[in-house]
Predict the structure.
Amino acid sequence: MTVKSKFFLTALPLLFVLFSIFLYERMLDIKFTDVLPNISGQPRSGIGDSIVYKIGVVSRFSPSLLYRGYQPLISYLNSQTPFHFELRLNKTYSEAVQQLASGELEAAFLGTYVFLKYMDVQPIHAFLAPLSSDGQPHFRIVLITREDFPYKKLTDFSGQRIGVPSPLSFSGNWLQKYILPKVWPAGMPKPQFVSYDFHHTVVQHLIRNDLAGGVVKDRVAEEYAGKGIRIVRRSRYIPASPLVRGPASDQRVIEAISDVLTRIPDRKRMVLKEWDAEFRHGFVRVKDQLYKKFKQELDEGEMSGFISFHISH
Amino acid sequence: MGLFHSIFPIKGIRARLLVAFGAMLVILFWIISFLILNQWRRMILTNAEEQVESVTRAFSIFVIETFIFAESNQMKVDDALDYYIRDYLAREPRLRYIAIYDPQGTILVHSDPQRFIYTPHDSLAPLILQSGKALNRAYQDADYGWVIESAFPLQIASKNWGVLRMGFEAGSVRKEIQGLFYSLLMFAAIITVFALILLYILSGYLTASLRKLTTAIDRFEIDKPLNFEQPPYEDEISLLYQHFTRMQNRLQESQSKVMEIQRQIYQAEKLASIGRLASGVAHEINNPLNGIKSCLYAINRDPDDHCQTAEYLKLIDEGLQHIETIVTKLLGFARRPSKSREAVNLNEALKKVLQLLEFRFSQKQIRLSLKPDNNLPPIQADSQLMQEVFMNLLLNSYDAVSEKGHISVMSGIEDNERVFVRITDNGPGIDPEDQKKIFDPFFTTKEPGEGTGLGLSVSLSIVQAHGGTIEVQSQPGRGCEFKVILPIGEEK
Ligand SMILES: Nc1ncnc2c1ncn2[C@@H]1O[C@H](COP(=O)(O)OP(=O)(O)OP(=O)(O)O)[C@@H](O)[C@H]1O
Ligand SMILES: [Mg+2]
């Protein structure tokens, strides 16, 4: 054996062991740091303004979900107006109405049902309403069944379960309070009404076959088109849930909000996609008159078809 | 190949090829294992990172809710969070710490009060909020050991609450990689050992027949077939075997040719010796014949002189007797050499030859001294051929010495194993150039017709056939010495 070969026969395994150790060390050194993307410009938040204008919202959704829907709109207002707005979560509608009246809230999102209930007793005024897909500030309530349910007339639901959303909404009251008392034959067992927190939950339970029928907003029902449900009854048009101001609201601020939200330029349409589904089609200015007239019609019972509403205080 | 061969001193071409191939295979396998290891390591790390990020994301929703809850209820957020964080930490064994910083990077809550004091500021918080994405890292901490951390922005649209940092232990991730490393190392080592063993067996199997062939060649004898089992398949070794057998055949052929020529040379030498003898014999016979002739002439001229006639007749008788002896000896020498072996006393053989040459020697007045060893044991040999050898050597000495020259002949025993006969003369000797050639057939320095140059070559071959040798020593000008050495051999 030559000196050279002896050298190699000892050096090779040694080299190999050293390499393995090196590899081992390298493999177990799991240190890493993500690279921060290179961002130019100012932070997005406009903190620093002296006055914070609070906008109230009431919802049964969890706060973070609610923020996901409403905060983009607030952020848009912050970026487009010289004012600084913040969301304020209210536990109840009455709390929100009270805070509006006291001036704690600059504005608040209220449901139509709730606004009609409080508009005469508190100094609050509707000034904006979201548009539906047809460009009007209104919506309808619909009665839905599963596609395989052989619906012909309302009495088909006799003794069946019908899902409804919150009792503080028109949808939650429409069939139960305003329709059935007028049209249901005496002596026939009424349908059993089951309350859910959200419109979507009603549809989900209907699809799952927990219910025979459901009552929801037309927009929600349309989301589920082609997923095993069909609409069997529609209500007349009902004014959309308004954005409401209180007596002490700063007119400039209200004007700025109205101005920005009614004139969203086409190039900014994209931002609407982030917003709550309710606001996807933009806003229009409204007056209390719209709601007053609707309430009058309700009170008089002059509704097209068999639909009639009663507002009880 | 030079470097390779100095590293692996392997002789066989095929074995060398196999080792090179095996080494390449092993290296390839190691590289593949390394690539697999690297890939798996990346997967494990990415997976761990994603896990940490998703847990942090999920927890961030809860933190945001708490922020909103605290805001709408005019509560201090750190009070609300502190309890939940410690509760969550206790229920999540892999979680090492949770820290929350406000949008400016000032610490709000830390699961470890010590840390709250020592890391009061997170300079990255504004940047993370600005990017809107989680910032993950893995690092080694003095207290927590290896940690994978996700820094998650607490943010909805432009509303920023701060940054949530959650650190999870990464020791188990490292253990996983370690396990992978060891198992791949083991696997690679097993494969290597397996490949080497296979290689060893294979190369041994391949060279076995080659080794068999070499040992067979070592024991090879020209006239016997090679004791080698030819491999059943056609390869280089069977080719080698075939060529070797062919060479053996050619050797056998040339050997038989050599033997044939040798036989012819014997015959030619025989004839030549007889010719040379004949001239001597003619000379020897001529003298008595001349005497007989003159006796007969005298008797014929005076047939009545009975006294004279009786005297001449007696002389004639003597002359005839002399001729008779010569002829008898001649006959004895000329008998065809048989290859028979018998017990031969070399002294006897010497004496017979010297008797034949006696007349010649006396004519040239050569002084002959004979010192035979009387204890010389008989050897197994052909007596006729032995006589021929001595005859040749003595004739050479006869030719070499001048008038009144001196030839001495002695026999003896060497080492109890060999007998020798030494013939020394005081002729001119042989010059060193010629000494190499004198045993070549037909090498002669004598005049044409006087020497054939066969004497020594035939003699040597005879002696060698008896297992002996002929040694020559000569000093030019002083004479030379030929020593025939023969083994005593066993009595058969
Ligand atoms: N005793 C000697 N002294 C000197 N030279 C010798 C002697 N013996 C042999 N030689 C040399 O060796 C040569 C070869 O000898 P060898 O006996 O083979 O042939 P040769 O004597 O020449 O012929 P022949 O065939 O008649 O014997 C001789 O020619 C001679 O030159
Ligand atoms: Mg001779």
